[in-house]
Amino acid sequence: MGMCEGKTFKFSNATITSFAAVVGKVEGEGPYGSEFDEVIEDNKGGTDTWEQAEAGLQKKSLQYAMDKAELNPEKMDLVFAGDLLNQCTGSSYGLKDYYIPFLGLYGACSTFAESLLMAASMVNAGYVENCAAVTSSHFSSAERQFRFPLNYGGVRTPTAQWTATASGAAIVDASQKAPFIRAATVGKIQDMGITDLNNMGAAMAGAAYDTITRHMKHMGTHPENYDLIITGDLGQVGSDMMYELFKRDGVSVEGKHKDCGLMIYDRDRQDVHAGGSGCGCSASMMCGYFLKKVRRGELKRILYTATGALMSPTMVQQGGSIPGIAHAVEITSE
Amino acid sequence: MGMCEGKTFKFSNATITSFAAVVGKVEGEGPYGSEFDEVIEDNKGGTDTWEQAEAGLQKKSLQYAMDKAELNPEKMDLVFAGDLLNQCTGSSYGLKDYYIPFLGLYGACSTFAESLLMAASMVNAGYVENCAAVTSSHFSSAERQFRFPLNYGGVRTPTAQWTATASGAAIVDASQKAPFIRAATVGKIQDMGITDLNNMGAAMAGAAYDTITRHMKHMGTHPENYDLIITGDLGQVGSDMMYELFKRDGVSVEGKHKDCGLMIYDRDRQDVHAGGSGCGCSASMMCGYFLKKVRRGELKRILYTATGALMSPTMVQQGGSIPGIAHAVEITSE
Fold first, then answer.
1. Closest Cα to residue A75, out of A98, A56, A57?
2. Does residue B317 belong to the interface with chain A, where contact is any CB pair within 8 Å?
3. What's this model's pTM, rounded to 2 decimal places?
4. First to last CA, chain B
5. Based on the domain organization, do A202 and A120 belong to the same domain?
6. Is B147 on the interface with A (CB under 8 A)?
């Protein structure tokens, strides 16, 4: 698909030493509700606004992760964080009181993979002893910002995804216990010409295909070498598109593939259309569910690939398409 | 000021091998106008919108930097980029056609220092052979997004800064020729309780003070060890506040200090109130002016500290304050 290969980074000293997830009420009522560290029943999280509530999710998820690692903010060397809100204020307002050296990222819904790979890079290289990766999203703050104000009462399209109210936090260090981050591949921006804000899965499918393909090529692996290939929030439409792209290369990923957006809700019971999305969706599924299974050795090798739609309502209103990106992080139990 | 020290990263293999800056008409008419690689006279840069024009600035500045290093996009391993637009679309739309592995950052006006320090970290650790750092800002797209639409015709307050229409791009590799990136300190978010969107210099002064203080402590240096301490866009109000904070510690930085926001325009001749701001302001002054002086040995050791106001109009409308951050990058000629 491209001329420039890019590189896959390899790590020998990057452990996800602790991880935690905090979610909203709807996510708490989903099939993995009991796996999360806390379910916040109040959509405003005891604050006055959705935006402050989202900041609160990040604050809580990082606190849980620090508690589990017996770390406090004074002992934290660095945090990478991002979210979907304009100017990434979920991160800056959520984490400012911890006073930890802070590097803000923006990768839309790919941000948790981006932050994990950056945390692994910095710990593995020895720049820091530990580094946190934190992201969040919130249904109400995202709808207000990206689509329509909720009280507009618009009918959602069938391809529309449901932004998860959720945050995940992971702390990486060099402690040599599972889960290990073994490798990572940075995504390239892919533009498939999609212009529909309610069809982001399609905009991201090409990016997932490209990054996973490059990662496996550089690692010398095939889908059968992984227990699971986990995408962030392609949804059903985006997943099907990704399968088609792999099929052109004679590669089948369907049997190994799980999409966090398709898992976080019970789509028969919960009215969430094409599934979940948002920076917090795969962050909470990774930190609430998948990383536990890797730690216990029930999953030995997974390829976590979070996709992001690098779109802006302003650009789409100007007729621009929605570029996608995906970053891949390989995580193992040994 | 804080309990947590954080770390200063040291680099022995990080050279800024090429750099370039592209600016708008007003910046081209400023005192350093002749230093920039290109001055775009048309505010929309030949496109239909200001946002597309800003994307074009990033595309151009990186192209100039690649040309100077005799690199093409296929030979680029990684790019860190960010801007002030919502969803950082100046970066994603500006750089998507290069198809270079892309990591998006958000640090408001601190983003060029953030991207430089990340580029140095990744090259110095050997993850990549080269890595670009690119940021931009645009007066018209920023005014529309952050304050008032330009056609509202509001009177600007005296403390208001003028968002620079500018982009800077630098390429870091391990080629062992000046300028060298020798060290960097990641900022912590500082909240000084400022709530005025037109007084961002004050919101950022504490962050600059904190990061520069920690950097010098870790390096065992004092202001006199540097030829210059260069801040991004504190403006006069923010610079004066920073001097006051240093004075409490018995440290004088005035004689060594230059602020890119106070340099980029001729404030007697150009009606820019408190000076320039924006991700592109210090990026273009570094890539158009200061790095040339380091390469020629006219500046031997500089501490570039870009500050960012991590504010969102939404949070400020909700009564929130404006947190600031600053990242420091030490650059030497030997």
1. A98
2. no
3. 0.96
4. 32
5. no
6. no
B100–A188 CB contact, under 8 Å = yes
Question: Looking at CA atoms only, how far is residue A31 from chain B in angstroms?
Answer: 31
Answer for the pair B236, B257: CB distance below 8 angstroms, yes or no.
Answer: no
Q: Would you call B274 exposed, middle or buried from its count of C-beta atoms within 10 A (0-12, 13-18, 19+)?
A: buried
Residue B1 lies in a domain: no
pLDDT in tens, chain A (334 residues): 444 478 999 999 999 999 999 999 999 999 999 999 999 999 999 999 999 999 999 999 999 999 999 999 999 999 999 999 888 889 999 999 999 999 999 999 999 999 999 999 999 999 999 999 999 999 988 887 876 655 556 666 766 778 999 999 999 999 999 999 999 999 999 988 888 777 778 889 999 999 999 999 999 999 999 999 999 999 988 999 999 999 999 999 999 999 999 999 998 888 777 788 999 999 999 999 999 999 999 999 999 999 999 988 888 888 888 899 999 999 999 9
Query: Residue written as tokens 């020290």?
Result: B5
Does residue A323 share a domain with residue A186? yes
Q: State whether ipTM is beyond 0.90.
A: yes
Does residue A134 belong to any structural domain of this protein? yes
Check if A317 contacts B (Cβ < 8 Å). no
Give the total number of structural domains in chain B. Answer: 2
Domain extent for B194 = 178-332
Structure tokens at A297: 């050795």
Q: Write the residue in A52, A77, A82 that is nearest to B106 by C-beta.
A: A82
Cβ contacts of A75 on chain B, cutoff 8 Å: 4
Shortest CA gap A270–chain B (Å): 29
Contact B167, B200 (CB under 8 A): no
| Residue A61 identity (one-letter amino acid) | S
A-contacting residues in B 59-118 (Cβ below 8 Å): 73-78, 82, 85-89, 92-93, 95-96, 99-108, 114, 118
